[in-house]
Amino acid sequence: MIDFQHILNTIVEEISSEPDKGIVATYIPELAKVDCTKFGISLLDNNAKLYSSGEANEMFSIQSISKVLSLSMAFRILGNDLWNRVGVEPSGDPFNHLSLLEMENGIPRNPLINAGAIVIADILVTQLKNPKQEFLEYIRKIANDNSINYDESVAKSEKETGFRNYAAAYLIKSFGNLKNDVEEVLDFYFHQCSLRMSCEQLVTIFYIFSNRGECLQNHRYLDLNQVKRINAIMLTSGFYDEAGEFAFEVGLPGKSGVGGGIVALLPNKFCVATWSPGLNKKGNSKLGMLALEKLTTTTALSIF
Ligand code: GLU
C-alpha cells in the first residue's frame, strides 16, 4: 500500500529547499501581491481519503483552473452541440494568443485557452438566468461547501487590465461566435477566474473527474463519456504550450492557472492539487510541476 502522507510530506520538504521558485504573475496586479514561498499539496484518493501537506488549506486564485469547471457546466447543458462552437485540439500557443483565432474564423482551438473559455462563458451567459450566481452554486454543490466565493478585487483588477481578453472577445464576436454583449461575457469570465479555493477544496471538486463523474456525496454530474472527453482535453490542452512537457514529466491530465495552482488526476485512483505561486516561463507553477513529477515518479502512478 502506498503511503501518500509520507510521500506528500517528503515532497514538501524537498520543495522547500528549491532555490528557484519561479516568478509570480504580475499582469493581473492583484496576483502580484502573493507570497511566492507558499506551497501546499493535497491528494484525495478514490476511497475518499484526503492527504495534505504544507499550506493546503490556504485559499488562492484558481484562475484558469476554473475553465474546466465552466466547460463541465456548459457540456452538461448543451451536450455535444458544444463542439460546434469550440474545438478540441491543443493550440501549441500561449493561453492568450490571438493569431490562431483569426486564421480559424473565431472558433477557438479548445475550451481551455482564453478564447475557448470566453466562448464557454458566452454559452453560460445565454443559458443561465443569473450566470455568476448559478455557476457559483454549481461549484459549491459539487464541493458541498458554501464558503467558496469569487474574489471581487481580483475580478476588478483583471477587468481593468485584461486587454487581450477584450481583443479576443471582440475578434470572436466579429466572426459571429459570441452571441452576448462582450462586457457581460467578460464580467462572467473574470469572475469565474477569480474563484478562491484551497488545494483541499480543489481536489474535492475535481474528484468528479477522477471518480467517473460522481462527487464525494455520490451525486452524478457527468456521464462517463463526458468525463472521458474532459479528461482528454485536460491532457492535451491543460498546460498552455507546455502540455507535452507536462505529459512527459508528470503523465496525468490536469489544468494549471496563473495563480500558481495545478490540479491533476489519475482516473479511478486519485486527484491531486498543488499551489506554489511562482510560475515558469510558460505560465505553469514551477514547483507545482516539479512536485507532481516527484509524485508520479515515486509512486509509478500515471496514465502511462
Ligand atoms: N484570468 C486569466 C486570464 O484570462 C487566466 C489566465 C490563466 O490562469 O491561464 O488571463
Short description:
The chain folds into two domains: 4-63 and 196-299, DD-peptidase/beta-lactamase superfamily (Beta-lactamase), CATH 3.40.710; 65-193, 3-Layer(aba) Sandwich (Beta-lactamase).
What's the topology here?
Elements: H1 4-16, E1 23-24, E2 40-45, E3 50-54, E4 60-61, H2 66-78, H3 99-103, H4 114-127, H5 131-143, H6 152-161, H7 163-174, H8 182-194, E5 196-197, H9 199-210, H10 224-237, H11 243-249, E6 254-256, E7 261-266, E8 270-275, E9 278-279, H12 286-299
Antiparallel strand pairs: 1-9, 2-3, 2-8, 4-5, 6-7, 7-8
Helix pairs in contact: 1-12, 2-4, 4-7, 4-8, 6-8, 7-8
The chain binds glutamic acid.
Glutamic acid (GLU) binds next to loops.
Could you characterize what this model shows?
The chain has about 300 residues and is α+β, with helices and mostly antiparallel strands. It folds into two domains: about 5-65 and about 195-300, Beta-lactamase (3-Layer(aba) Sandwich), CATH 3.40.710; about 65-195, Beta-lactamase. About 45% of the residues lie in helices and about 10% in strands. It contains twelve helices and nine strands. The protein has helices at about 5-15, 65-80, 100-105, 115-125, 130-145, 150-160, 165-175, 180-195, 200-210, 225-235, 245-250, 285-300, and strands spanning about 25, 40-45, 50-55, 60, 195, 255, 260-265, 270-275, 280. Helix 1 packs antiparallel against helix 12 (about 285-300) and helix 2 (about 65-80) crosses helix 4. The radius of gyration is 18 Å and the shape is globular. The mean pLDDT is about 95. Bound molecules: glutamic acid. Glutamic acid binds near residues 64, 96, 193, 257 and 258. Glutamic acid binds near residues 95 and 257.
